[in-house]
Amino acid sequence: MSLTPDVQHNQGVQYNQGVQNSGPFRAGDRAQLTGPKGRLNTITLEPGKVFHTHRGIVAHDDIIGLPDGSVVTNNVGVEHLVLRPLLVDFVMSMPRGAAIIYPKDAAQILAQADIFPGATVVEAGVGSGALSLWLLRAIGPAGRLASFERREEFADVARDNIATFLGSDPENWTITLGDLAETLPDTLPAQSVDRVVLDMLAPWECLDVVSDALKPGGVVLCYVATVTQLSRVAEAIRGTGLYTNPDSNETMIRGWHVEGLAVRPDHRMIGHTGFLITARRLAPDTILPELKRRPSKTDFTDADFEAWTPGALGERTASPKSLRKRVRAAGTSAALSKARDLTGDTGASAPADTDAD
């Protein structure tokens, strides 16, 4: 029997040798089961195997051959919805070596960095491979993704996760171990990269090599977690004189509960996870025109700074009358406390203050 490239026959059973995003479930496919309470479980289908839950057993053989989006009943009559997991489902449940970039940020990265089919993309900070999967899908087979990671264990987790989801190691993807500032010049020639995505602690340390690698008009995008990182990388980008003025933002998602007339925001939301800051590479020997704008609050002189000192604002002091009243109150409180210690009486009350001054 002749075999197609992605299907192998063994005793009448089809084994998946690649990713299939539609059609009937095959042995080797990943299936996502949704129970009656909405709990999700993802399994890899194997003939003869079963999936145990606290409410019965689901046989893999009952799923193999069913179309995507079917309902299967376990041995005690409990129904489970069966779907192929989406990429968003996979990245949220896959093994993690490092924290992942959430889908809400990954979507904005693809949009704001303008990741296009056929692009040459540099990614620094692979983590667990979540963003790598989104980038590989966006650039397509004609593109190239060059990933850089300092820690070997993170690279191993990312490599395994990507192979799990795609079914094999992509030919257009490489992982280079080491510091980006040291390894990028030896990996890619100057002005050969369309987009650079930096997910690292100190992206400003790599701007020199990134600037050399980017084509004129290329985009650099940095994903940072804190305000201090955001400020520092923005000023570092401006300080090079090689980029447009950086744009920064963050994305927050609030779900909505919609059921009949009960329409309201969810009680929980995905808030701050990180900041995105983007800029575009200028052509060589180009000087960015100065923006004509109103004076910014960030433009200040020594005189402006002095205006906010206590001397300029005037030190605020309490009036003599107020001070005398506070001294009497403190003295009365201390006297009562000492008296209680001596007599053991806890019922004494402070005398009324009748001094009109």
TrEMBL record:
Keyword annotations: Methyltransferase, S-adenosyl-L-methionine, Transferase, tRNA processing
InterPro entries, per the entry: SAM-dependent_MTases_sf, TRM61_C, tRNA_MeTrfase_Gcd14
Residues making up the signal peptide according to the UniProt record: none
Record's compositionally biased regions (Low complexity): 7-23
A GO biological-process term: tRNA methylation
Gene3D superfamilies in alphabetical order: 3.10.330.20, Vaccinia Virus protein VP39
Molecular-function GO terms, alphabetical: tRNA (adenine(58)-N1)-methyltransferase activity
Domain of life: Bacteria
Example of a GO cellular component annotation carried by this entry: tRNA (m1A) methyltransferase complex
Start and end residues of each stretch annotated as Disordered: 1-39, 311-357
Residue span, tRNA (adenine(58)-N(1))-methyltransferase catalytic subunit TRM61 C-terminal domain: 92-258
Membrane-spanning segments: none
Name this protein carries in UniProt: tRNA (Adenine-N1)-methyltransferase
Upper lineage: Bacteria, Bacillati, Actinomycetota, Actinomycetes, Micrococcales
